[in-house]
Design brief:
The complex is a heterodimer.
Chain A: H1 3-31, H2 37-55, H3 60-76, H4 79-97
Chain B: H1 2-12, H2 15-26, H3 31-40, H4 44-50, H5 53-56, H6 61-70, H7 73-85, H8 91-115, H9 127-142, H10 149-164, H11 169-194
The chains are: A mainly alpha, B mainly alpha.
């Protein structure tokens, strides 16, 4: 590893942590403002965005498995059961299509 | 050097940022430009960490700094969804799950650097879908009720649209979330106006 590699790691870690620190201070500022209600709403909005981003460019198999995972999650509210059902569906459809 | 990957994983702790920064740097970009490109992918953490305001509460400042460094998408989502089910879940859960994820992240990326191309593409075995399924389950736990359907739909659809237009997932997540917030504020504004 050269000095420039170390430099990149140091700089990136500083910038990445600064972003997180900005979130910490933003949370405090928003929490004391009339927009405090947004802090309760943010997690749900971010997590559906995470789901959308992870599925956006994936093939149909992913969406079918996603639908099965959603049904399982809706019925069971259990993370392990949802992961199990979703991954099994994904593997089964991939296997049948292969 | 394989240990450089472990060092970067431990100090930066942001997968997509690391990949982009290394990619840019190895492609000839200046160090600052590569680091900025990588860090910009982490912008969603402003919203995620801000939402931890109540969870971190009155913890000592050093513990809050530790908590925000070890927070990842997965343990943040797990904490927020678990808190919805059990309101007593707080900073200790976030830090405990964060440390677990952090160790797994550093060890697995280091092992990955050691193993190199000897490993098969684990996505082919459906492993990549595990995270999507976990996020779906956590979203279900956080589901607040039908009155939030418009803002959740907008957040999902906008992220999907932005990603399909070729925007990097990290930016699409920020964009989609902002659209969801806008919808929420609009709904609140019109409700206040009517009442």
């Amino acid at each position: 590893m050269s000095a420039s590699h170390f430099g990149l790691i140091a700089l990136l870690s500083l910038l990445a942590f600064s972003v997180r620190l900005a979130g910490l201070f933003a949370g405090r500022a928003i929490g004391e403002s009339r927009l405090a209600f947004l802090l309760d709403e943010l997690p749900g909005l971010i997590i559906v965005a995470l789901v959308a981003a992870s599925m956006a460019t994936e093939p149909g198999i992913y969406w079918i498995a996603g639908g099965i995972a959603l049904l399982t999650a809706w019925k069971t509210r259990n993370i392990i059961a949802t992961m199990g059902a979703g991954m099994t569906a994904h593997a089964a459809i991939t296997f049948m299509g292969a | 050097m394989w240990w450089g990957v472990g060092l970067m994983g431990a100090t930066v702790h942001a997968g997509s940022s690391q990949i982009v920064a290394v990619d840019q740097f190895s492609g000839g970009s200046a160090m600052l430009a590569a680091a900025l490109a990588g860090a910009a992918l982490n912008l969603r953490y402003i919203g995620m960490i801000a939402s931890l305001h109540e969870v971190l509460g009155e913890k000592p400042f050093w513990q809050r700094l530790l908590a925000i460094h070890i927070t990842s998408d997965e343990n943040w989502a797990l904490t927020m969804s678990s808190k919805k089910e059990s309101p007593d879940i707080g900073a200790d859960f976030l830090i405990g799950s964060g440390l677990t994820m952090f160790l797994v992240w550093v060890c697995s990326t280091t092992l990955g650097a050691l193993a190199g191309n000897a490993l098969p593409d684990l996505d082919e075995y459906g492993l990549g879908f595990a995270f999507t399924a976990a996020f779906i389950a956590m979203a279900r736990s956080m589901w607040p009720g039908m009155d939030r359907l418009p803002s959740w739909t907008i957040s999902f659809a906008a992220t999907l649209l932005l990603s399909c237009q070729g925007m990097a997932a990290a930016y699409a997540i920020v964009g989609g979330t902002l659209c969801g917030i806008t919808m929420l504020l609009f709904e609140r504004y019109t409700k206040d106006k009517i009442s």
